[in-house]
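User: Could you check the structure of this?
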Amino acid sequence: MKKLIKKILREEIDKSDKHYRMLDIISDHVELPFFKSMEGLTIYDEDDQLYIMKKILGDDISIEGMTIYNGRYRSIYEETSSGLWDKNEYDNGKLLYSVNSNGDWEKNEYDDNGNKIYSENSNGYWEKYVYNDDGNLSYYKYFMEDGVWEEFKYDEDGNSISYGSDDGVWWKKEYDDRGRVIYEEDPNGWIKREYLYNEVVYHEDSDGDIYDNR
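Assistant: Sure, the predicted structure tokens are below.
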């Protein structure tokens, strides 16, 4: 087959319809790694390679060296001279899936607002994200079924008011109507504050320290 392809492509110097019909047939036999496969079928011409890859990956691509980009100039395929490769899939600029010649892979899921809600890879590592109605991260868990987690809460103004995690780390905060922290607490103690023109004029904490310049 290689000899037939080579003969026909040499004859079709002007790249007639017959030339492209042959490329259409060849595209059915190109497999990963793409560039090494095309060269194995005696396809060395860059324009012919681009034509074939458009048949495989779609029209909205470009090739630079051994890297293929989508219309947003994101790398969807990259290959080394030895035939090692990486392949990526995107949706609206978000990475959905990636895989390489070693069998390593990663997949991601997103909500309608473009926030990542789930991620997983071939090593067994995974992450889960939950967002509130305002788009703020409210819950995060990763790695295993009973694994590590973090939880976040917000007030109606979007201020972060509490945090907790599986390892016992936590804190909480309160704000005034200008978004300034007037109370905060964690396992080490608490602090109260009052402000005047964004300057702290009163400070009191659980260690008994008091500063009062009201």
